[in-house]
Amino acid sequence: MGATRPAPDVREQVSAITGIVPDRVIGQPGFDRVHGAVWTHAPVTATLDCPPHHTLVWQMSGTQDVTRIDAGRITGRGTRVDRVSLMEAGCRSTWCIGGVARVLHLYIPVALLQQHAAEHGLPGGCALQPFFSIDDPWLRHFSRLVLEDARDLDSRTPCPLLLDAAAACLASHLLRHHGADATGRRARSGPTAETGGLRPAALRRVQAYIDAHLGDTLRLDTLASLANVSRHHFVRAFRTSVGVTPHRYLLAQRLLAARTLLTADTQRPLGEIARAVGFTSASHFSATFSRHEGVAPSQLRRRVTRSAPIRAAAERRAAPPDRGA
User: Fold this and answer.
1) Considering the entire predicted model, what is its pTM?
2) Which element (helix H / strand E) includes 302?
3) Angle at 173 between CA 167 and CA 178, to 5 degrees
4) pLDDT value of position 73
5) CB 53 within 8 A of CB 7
């Protein structure tokens, strides 16, 4: 007999049941990688059959008329905007949505939680407690940040650094606050040595590596290894030291390098500059640059080209006279 095919993931099941596709896809499935999708649901009743991953649902807008049914029993009814729910891996559940709702799904591989639990020696393992329409400010803020940062991603080639960092933070929060041993774990945990920033030497190594590899695909594991800390601690410590997440720092450095290249060589093709600083295409680069810099790359270049003769004339007037003439 052939091997039993695992159940389709939630994204596949929702599309098959409703006949719609996500408004936006964030990242791609992976063994230990968080990915997501933004959906706009019309009224529907959908039974999700034992998906292979956990699904975090953040309600962005829309109806409060949402009901969850497990084994014929109502386990959750009525939700609100900004509330979050968790559909567990391997569980069959039915969801009744009574009106239009816009939601963010974050798909969380079980392997990610297993890895995090093993790395940190968590006694409760990687099991999660299901929840329905709860008010978790951390998860709400996290979901908003994922959506905001995802605006700068090319959905065809997402930034692994953003998704790796998101995965590390999310795994830590879920296991600490919603894991099988969450209550005892919070009571036992106290201040740790992993609350400060990176050591200065480690931070310099990481920043030098990022600056030298702006055109490459950077992974969180690599940066954490350079700093000699765990992935989760690296994300927190880097932000404490620099003031922004690793992904936002990388993006800022790429935009700074792009501005320098645009003004230094006005003949260099935009696509070539985009690839040199880590963007997948000229269109992706132009959209991101415009959003953050307030001007399109082509417009900046035209300004530089028009102002070059004026600057040259000013430099000639300011130069000391040639006394040998």
Assistant:
1) 0.71
2) helix 297-318
3) 120
4) 93
5) no
